[in-house]
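Q: Sequence in, structure out?
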Amino acid sequence: MTIDLRSDTFTLPSREMLETILTAELGDDVWREDPTVARLEALAAKKLGKEAGLLVTSGTQGNLCSIMTHLNHGDGVVLEAECHTYLNEAGGLTSIVGAYPFLIKGKNGLMYPKDVEAILTRPYNIHFVEPKLLCIENTHNTGGGAVIPKGNIDTLAKIAHENDVAVHIDGARIFNAAVALGIPAASLVENADSVQMCLSKGLGCPVGSVIVGTEEFIHRARKNRKIVGGGMRQAGIIAAPGIYALNNMIDRLAEDHLHAKLIADELKAQVSNIKIKPVETNLIVIDLSETPWTAQEIQDRFESNGIKMGSMGKYLLRMVTYFGISREDVDKVLATIPEIFQ
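A: Exactly. Output:
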């Protein structure tokens, strides 16, 4: 049986999660009449300490609707240069929203306050785009699943709000960050104006994300969701697994983090010149640039042993642990490493 470490988007729902669909109360959600969707949105808002929530089809749609709601055409948005919203969402923030990106080079996704402040405090000039939104990704995908600590978020939010700039968190894996830090997710994002969180990664749902914010923000975001084709009918069949996930799947993320650390530690112990970004959650980003191998060569060797992983460039590999990757699977990966790197 193949062990698939390409992404936590390959998580499969448990039988218990799937069974919630069979008994879900359904209605037409565009008419605001699906009670299961309403329950999920309220629960997500409570988990993240916000007033209201909105079910969307994906993290990309959630970020897009959020940015659409915060900005007018031509406004500026400040982002870390390697964030998912900028690199991996098909350019929606420019092609659909018409936003101008101000890019900041961070360290594993973490932006330094002085760099953000330099952009947000520029004197008004008729020639300049005005930044109106700051986006923070937590955990940070290309940063190796790096956790952005609460102190950094709070400092950046203070700078933003002092300059009339809103704050959105792309929290596709926000519960991974909260579990790694040992604090409630609501505390971690308390100074953000909006948050997008995925149900379909480590939480194990088949589909869906939720955005949260004030009642007024969600009211406007609902219209933007409709504009991009995100209005759904009997969406309770998506929401029911989401409710199960938020009630049952958060604490177990610590197991995924442990599994990722075990693999990373074994790689560092067995392979000379390998470089691995600090493993804080469930992602392992491996740099092979100082070894004799390319990412494709190592991918092929692992796959011939029944193990799949992703690549992020000629010399970069990514491995992701998640629900469904057992300790036995991890042990097989560990046992295979000496054979692969020889």
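The chain has 14 helices and 13 strands.
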